[in-house]
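Hi Y.,

Following your request, here is the sequence exactly as I used it, all 93 residues.
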Amino acid sequence: MIRHIVMWKFRPGTEEQQEQFLTGLRGLYGVIPQIREQEVMVNVVPGNYSAALIALFDSLEDLETYKKDPRHVKVSALCKAIREDRVAVDCEV
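Below is the corresponding structure, written out as tokens. Let me know if you'd prefer a different format.
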């Protein structure tokens, strides 16, 4: 199993787009079959990263399939337009 952890720091003034991105990201669970589990969280402490994703996949191949899925690519494109920074780690569990 692979745990995929991503955090984003969004640009100020993009709150509406942030909500659209996070809603779109949440909507991928149950639609893209490779996602086994998923949590999307918004940070409540100012000054840190804005939001995080923790998702579980059966394999690195499933993670790559998810990343290339057109539905994920569309949601990801919005994120790229509003983020200042992104960090990620993929761990075997």
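Strands lie at 2-10, 37-42, 51-57, 83-92.

Thanks again,
Q.
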